[in-house]
Write a structure and sequence with these properties.
Number of strands: 8
Radius of gyration: 16 Å
Number of helices: 7
Structural class: alpha+beta
Order of helices and strands: EEHHHEEEHEHEEHH
Bound molecules: coenzyme A
CATH topology: Aminopeptidase
Shape: globular
CATH superfamily: Gcn5-related N-acetyltransferase (GNAT)
Helix content: 25-40%
Oligomer: single chain
Strand content: 25-35%
Strand order of the largest sheet: 1-2-3-4-5-6-8-7
Length: about 190
Amino acid sequence: MSRLPTLITSRLIIRPLNINDTYDMFDYAHRDNVGPRAGWLPHQSQAESETVIRNMINQTMTDTNIGIFALEYKDNRKMIGTIGIHRYDKKNLSAEIGYVLHPDYWGMGLMVEAVTRIIAWLFDDMGLYRIECGHFDFNHQSKRVIEKCGFTFEGISRKKIFLQDGSRSDLYHYSILKDEYDNKQLPWQKEKE
Ligand SMILES: CC(C)(COP(=O)(O)OP(=O)(O)OC[C@H]1O[C@@H](n2cnc3c(N)ncnc32)[C@H](O)[C@@H]1OP(=O)(O)O)[C@@H](O)C(=O)NCCC(=O)NCCS
C-alpha cells in the first residue's frame, strides 16, 4: 500500500491530505491554542501551511511513518484537522497517533470518532499490534480523547518536553494492544454492541 485510503464515519471523511487543503489548514494552524498543545508553533502564513502539507504528504508510507490523514467535515466539506501516524516500527508492529482539530469543532466528540476509525484501520488493515499516544501534562482535552478511545496509561516521562515559553512539560504515555481490540474491550466497541 503506497497511498492512504479514504475512511468514512458518520460525520467525517478521513482521507489523504492534498495541497488544496492549505487554506483550511491555515484557518486552524495559525491559532495560538492549537499547535503549541501538540508541540508545534502557530503557522505564520498560508505559504507555511502549504509547505507543511507538502512535507506531510512526503511522510506517507515511509520506513518510519504511516502517514497523515485529513479530516473533512461532511456537513460543509471543510478540512478541519489531521491525524498523523508516526514512529512506525515495522519490526515490532507499532506506531504512534497524533491529532489536531479546528477549535470551532471542539467538544463535539469528532476526534474520538476519527481516532477510533483509524485504530480499527491500523489493526485490521495495517497489521499493527500496538498503537501509542501521548499528551503534555496540561492537555486535559487530549487526555479525555485518549481515555475515551480506550488507551491504557503506561507512565510519565518527567519534564521531557521544552515548551515554547521555556518551561518543561511531563509527557504522558498510553497504548492500545490488538488483543484488547480483538476482544472488544475498548469503551467504543462496547457501546456499539
Ligand atoms: C485534543 C482535541 C483534538 C480534542 O478534540 P475534540 O473532538 O474536541 O474532543 P472531545 O469533543 O472528545 O472533547 C474532549 C474534552 O475536551 C474538553 N472540551 C470540549 N470542548 C471544549 C472547548 N470548547 N474548550 C475547552 N475544552 C473543551 C472536554 O473536557 C472534553 O472532555 P469530556 O467529553 O469528558 O467533557 C482538540 O482539543 C485539539 O485539537 N486541541 C489542540 C491540539 C491538541 O491538543 N492535539 C493533541 C496533542 S497530544
